[in-house]
Every structure is written in C-alpha cells, then in structure tokens.
Design a protein that fits this description.
Elements lengths: L11 E2 L1 H9 L3 E4 L2 H4 L6 H15 L3 E8 L2 E4 L3 H9 L4 E3 L4 H6 L4 E3 L1 H11 L3 E3 L10 H4 L4 H8 L3 E4 L8 H10 L4 E4 L18 E3 L2 H13 L6 E4 L10 H17 L7 H12 L3 H26 L2
Parallel strand pairs: 1-4, 2-3, 2-7, 5-6, 7-8, 8-11, 9-10, 9-11
Antiparallel strand pairs: 3-4, 3-6
Helix pairs in contact: 3-4, 3-13, 6-8, 10-13, 11-12
This protein binds pseudouridine-5'-monophosphate and manganese (II) ion.
Length: 310
C-alpha cells in the first residue's frame, strides 16, 4: 500500500508536515494527552519540545497532534505546545470525544486512540508515545478498558510505546490485544516491557530487532489489507529503569488512593499517573521522560525505514 494519501481537508497541518507527506518523507506523530494530562508543568513542555528535536535529529518530521480551537492540528508550534502544557481547559480527548470538542470549538489533548485516528486521516503511519492504555486492574467489575485497544484493532498506524504500566492488568491487556487482531512486537527483547521497567514477567508474542524488519512487517500487514495497528514495544534503557519490585507498592498505593477518591472513567489514568509522580518524589517522571526520548529515537528510525520501502 502506498503511504502517500491526501490528508483529510478538515485537518490543519503545518507546512513542514504537509511537505514531508507530499514527498513521502518520514513523519512521526506524537500524542498530547501525555503533555496535558500525563506530566506536570514545566516538565511536560520540556519533554514535548525535546521529543520533537530528537525526531528531527533522527531525520524525520515530528507532528504533535491535538485539537486547538476546535480544529484538529497535525504539527504544532511552540505556542501550541505551551498552551497544551498550561491551560486547564484542555480536555482529554479520545476518539469518542473528538466530535464534541471540534463542534464546540474547544481545546483537546488527544489520547493514543484519538492520535492514531487523526494520524491515519493525515496519512501518517508511525506514532510515538510513552505508554498505551489497556485493561485496568479490576476491569471485571469496572469494565475499564481503554479505547486505545479498540483503536489499535481498527486503524493502520504503528504505535511505539514502552509497553503498559502495571497500573493496568498487563496479562489481560495482552489477551485483549490478541482477540482484537493486534500484533504486539517487542523490540530487541523477548519480554513485554512494563513501562518503568524492562520486565513484566509476560513474554511478547513477537520480537523484531531492526527498524527495517519493523517496516517490512508494516508493509506486509497493510498490503494484505489486514487493517488495524501494530503495537511495537520498546523497553526502557537499563540505566533509566526503575525495577518492577520498587514500583509495585507505589502502584498499589496509587490505585488504593484512586478508589478512596472515587475516581473513575476518563479521570482514572491521569489520576494514577499524577499520584505515581507524587509518591516517587519525581523519580517516575525522570524515567517517563527517558523512555519517551528512547521511543522517539526508534520512531524516527522506523519511519525512515518505512519511507525507504516506497
Ligand atoms: N499511560 C501512560 N501515560 C499516559 C497515558 C497512558 O503511561 O500519558 C495516556 C495516553 O494518552 C493514553 C491514555 O492513550 O492515557 C489512556 O487513557 P484511558 O486509560 O482513559 O483510555
Ligand atoms: Mn478508561
């Protein structure tokens, strides 16, 4: 399948992204919920700026995605990143929320799911983030399963993450991805990584070891019309990781606090992410930023390898 598609006319692209897509040059999409609802200020805007720089250094064009004043934006300037990082009126926007925020002219920070959909509408095939949403612990009672998984089953974009945090039920998340036809590929390891740590105790269903192999798999999937995404999971570097044994009690505390505060629905993930930063005194934030940067380096390589195939 030729990745050069015309962006949907309702999207607002930066000139740089428009040009790169027209040329078939590598473009990497980035989400914005991680900026507005995943990290505190000012580390959020610093992370968002740094990640774009890493993607440029890797020879690709970054496209941070959000909704500003009701317009879906593919690529943002420094002012847009600052607004997303500071404005309390930025809604967390998954796919179901897109029509609402657009019709009302609001600002929205897009989740993995909404960013995937807008990427695909723009013609971008590679998307870098920190962590995926998934099946929450206790989901048999709460039914809390992220729409990120639904979107991975529908939309032809590869999502590069550091796996999922154990705020989720990692085993149930992997089972659900299997049911949804979503290939889960660990990069350079046999094990599915657990975000802050390289180890989750769960094997990854698939493994690849080079950007070229990843690009071949993307082509193979979409040439056959096997629609839907790919979850490429890239373990945090050993020097940046926090061992799972250290994070376990932190996560249990954060989940207990969530129940006491009666937080649920779309507030659950942002609450847990914020509590983990508080409980670890910022150590989790340092690891989070390191793993996003690591994913950005890989994302630029994968986008370049995929562009070279066409
Ligand atoms: N996991 C993280 N950091 C994040 C998120 C998840 O470690 O910032 C964000 C992503 O935007 C993801 C969203 O798409 O949370 C999932 O939210 P929910 O669980 O409400 O679907
Ligand atoms: Mn949820």
């Amino acid at each position: 399948m030729n990745p050069i598609r015309k962006p949907h006319p309702d999207l607002v692209l930066t000139d740089e992204v428009t040009q790169a897509l027209a040329d078939g040059a590598p473009v990497v999409a980035l989400e914005s919920t991680i900026i507005s609802h995943g990290m505190p200020y000012p580390q959020n805007v610093e992370m968002a700026t740094e990640v774009e720089r890493i993607i440029r250094d890797g020879g690709a064009v970054p496209a941070t995605i959000a909704v500003l004043d009701g317009r879906p934006r593919i690529g943002l300037d420094a002012q847009g990143l600052e607004l997303l990082s500071t404005d309390a009126d930025v809604a967390k926007v998954s796919v179901r929320d897109l029509p609402y925020v657009i019709a009302r002219g609001g600002h929205g920070a897009t989740t993995v799911a909404a960013t995937m959909r807008l990427s695909a509408l723009a013609g971008i095939s590679v998307f870098v983030t920190g962590g995926l949403g998934g099946v929450h612990r206790g989901a048999s009672q709460s039914f809390d399963v992220s729409a990120d998984l639904t979107e991975l089953s529908l939309t032809d974009v590869i999502v590069i993450s550091a796996g999922v945090k154990s705020i989720l039920d990692i085993g149930l998340t992997l089972e659900t991805l299997e049911t949804l036809h979503v290939p889960v590929v660990a990069y350079g390891t046999d094990e599915f990584p657990a975000f802050f740590s390289r180890h989750s105790g769960h094997l990854s269903p698939m493994r690849l070891d080079s950007p070229g192999e990843v690009a071949e798999m993307m082509s193979a999937k979409w040439r056959l019309g096997l629609s839907g995404g790919i979850s490429l999971v890239n373990p945090i570097r050993a020097e940046d990781e926090i061992p799972a044994s250290e994070m376990d009690h932190v996560i249990e505390q954060a989940i207990a606090d969530m129940y006491s505060a009666e937080i649920h629905g779309k507030e659950a993930t942002p609450f847990l992410l914020g509590r983990i930063v508080e409980i670890t005194g910022g150590a989790s934030l340092t690891a989070n930023i390191a793993l996003v940067n690591n994913n950005a380096r890989l994302g630029a390589e994968v986008a370049s390898a995929y562009a070279a195939l066409h």
